Write a sequence for this structure.
């Protein structure tokens, strides 16, 4: 088959797909999302020349093109070829670029992304983290988790005064959560958790699920 014909066919498919659906750059990615029977924990290039994500848990035609800040965070530790890793790696990378899994087990889900080696996003033009820094009248010295499960950091010595921040580089993040048998992220009562939680525990003990969908599987352990 002629190479140009294949190229034109690909563009035609992409344009038809874009026409039939709605891309919204202002919406937020929802992870994981289900598209044509497959579950995605990160942005995908499925049927597209550029990465995208759904803005609903089950794809219904609503989507957005992925920017660097839209990708989910790395999950550490993660399992790759039966070995546990606590940081970004180059093993298995075609071009030697650092990458990480976005679930606890790459071997199980095969969901990944390239690692960001510098701070990015935020409102300070991607300036690097400054530690220690003052935030809500407390001294902090590590990245913090926001309501969207993103890890961020102040970029000045006084966050309360300056309000400047960036998203933390993936290479800055070490293992912040327990490893196996916890599965991160896990879904409990329609909310994703990237760390152990005491939600639902009568004794207020920290626990985690051992599969992605606790509501469906009901398997868990104390942290």
């Amino acid at each position: 088959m002629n190479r140009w014909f294949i190229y034109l066919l690909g563009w035609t498919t992409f344009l038809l797909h874009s026409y039939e659906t709605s891309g919204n750059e202002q919406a937020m990615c929802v992870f994981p999302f289900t598209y044509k029977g497959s579950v995605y924990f990160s942005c995908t290039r499925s049927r597209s020349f550029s990465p995208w994500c759904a803005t609903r848990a089950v794809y219904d035609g609503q989507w957005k093109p992925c920017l660097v800040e839209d990708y989910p965070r790395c999950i550490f530790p993660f399992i790759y070829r039966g070995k546990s890793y606590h940081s970004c790696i180059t093993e298995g990378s075609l071009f030697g670029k650092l990458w990480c899994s976005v679930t606890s087990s790459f071997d199980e889900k095969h969901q990944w992304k390239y690692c960001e080696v510098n701070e990015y996003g935020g409102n300070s033009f991607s300036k690097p983290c400054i530690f220690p820094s003052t935030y809500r009248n407390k001294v902090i010295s590590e990245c913090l988790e926001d309501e969207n499960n993103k890890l961020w950091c102040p970029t000045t010595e006084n966050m309360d005064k300056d309000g400047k921040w960036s998203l933390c580089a993936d290479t800055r993040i070490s293992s912040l959560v327990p490893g196996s048998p916890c599965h991160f992220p896990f879904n409990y009562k329609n909310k994703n958790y990237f760390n152990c939680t005491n939600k639902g525990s009568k004794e207020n003990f920290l626990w985690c699920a051992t599969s992605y969908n606790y509501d469906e599987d009901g398997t868990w352990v104390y942290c």
